[in-house]
Amino acid sequence: MRVRDKLTNQERIGKDSNYEQEGKVQFVIDAVYAMAHALHNMHQELCPGKVGLCAKMDSINGTHLLKHIRRLNFAGIAGNPVLFNENGDAPGRYEIYQYQIRNRTAEYKIIGHWTDQLHLNVRTMQWPGGIRRIPSSICSHPCQAGERKKIVKGIPCCWHCERCDGYQYQADTYTCKMCRFDLRPNVNHTGCVPIPIVKLEWSSPWAVIPVLIAVVGIMATVFVVVTFVRYNDTPIVKASGRELSYVLLTGIFLCYATTFLMISTPDVGICSLRRIFLGLGMSISYAALLTKTNRIYRIFEQGSMSVSAPRLISPASQLVITFSLASVQLLGVCIWFGVDPSKAIIDYEDQRTSDPVMARGVLKCDISDLSLICLLGYSMLLMVTCTVYAIKTRGVPETFNEAKPIGFTMYTTCIIWLAFIPIFFGTSQSTEKVSLQLLYYYYY
């Protein structure tokens, strides 16, 4: 049967008909019309006022025809304009659909189109939760101050914002860097600021207590010295060995006076005086006690063997021995000055906390633990030697009233040293703990 036999002459193609045309047919028709319009325009240009082909169109120049094709601008069969851009391409035309659910039925609904620019009908759009406002449609939000962009692998236009934490600051858009050792990041981590410098202040409670103890100790020492001077020629003062007693009181005075050097603001002068007097007071005190116990030991040891008096027991000899022992401490300090001159430093590691806000630099003298042990080591040697002689003289007669008090003093001192050393060096890396060292220093 031929197709013509099926036609009823009532067929119509429209919106209400059941006919569905192939989607690409309109482009074929528009292409034919484009060629026709271009030939028509070229004919009017080359053969004005003539019907049919003229001599100029006997051989059609394809380049000339292409020029007319690119100039076209007419409405196509679907009502869309037919034209070409500078590259000879037809402009893109797109219909934008949104997947919507209406009355529990899912469908794609046209919500706009794109022809050179976007055209959306916002009122016909639907969003999850029934919201009306268009949700943000970006890959990544801008990073805040102090945050760097960490690019997502495989998606160069997307990133994660990563905070520059700890002692880091934002060097550029993509990099966090560590602040210099003497700096810490500012509040928003966009740069670095100096770390505050702290030292032991005179008004601090940690300084007031040692100062009060030092003042009381100095007053007591001065009171004893004045009493000795006033009763200098009395038998009891002469029997106590007044020359060595004055030396011993001088050493005790220096120990208390060192407090003010320990609290003063460190500089080259203060640090030098600390090196000199921190161990000198103890060396003088122990040198005097050692000389006295050695004198007692030699007197009784010589008395058991001979009636003649031992040598070097006169007051002048005792002073020479005492100052000779103390001069060893000064000699060691002088050698120390030559090897490692005094200087004040700022220690940024001592109070470098995990939270940069709490970080502080400690202004202190450049005295290491090893140097301090060497500085006090000689005093410890004098103390141990003095204790040995105190043990040897523990059997002297009761009427000789110096030996046993000295022995008791040295026994207790040795016990205190066992607690003093770990506490003193265990607290040597903190500003406030300097006063704690002083307290143990006095107790010792």
TrEMBL record:
Ranges annotated as spanning the membrane: 206-232, 244-263, 275-291, 370-391, 403-425
Signal peptide: none
UniProt-listed Pfam families: 7tm_3, ANF_receptor, NCD3G
Membrane topology: Multi-pass membrane protein
InterPro entries xref list: ANF_lig-bd_rcpt, GPCR_3_9-Cys_dom, GPCR_3_9-Cys_sf, GPCR_3_C, GPCR_3_CS, GPCR_3_mGluR4, GPCR_3_mtglu_rcpt, mGluR
Keyword Cytoplasm found: no
Annotated GO CC locations: plasma membrane
Keyword Cell membrane: yes
Record's subcellular location: Cell membrane
Ranges for domain G-protein coupled receptors family 3 profile: 206-430
Superkingdom, natural source: Eukaryota
Gene Ontology MF terms: G protein-coupled receptor activity
Keywords tagged on the record: Cell membrane, G-protein coupled receptor, Glycoprotein, Membrane, Receptor, Transducer, Transmembrane, Transmembrane helix
UniProt family annotation: Belongs to the G-protein coupled receptor 3 family.
Identification of the protein by name: G-protein coupled receptors family 3 profile domain-containing protein
Organism the protein comes from: Perca flavescens
Lineage: Eukaryota, Metazoa, Chordata, Craniata, Vertebrata
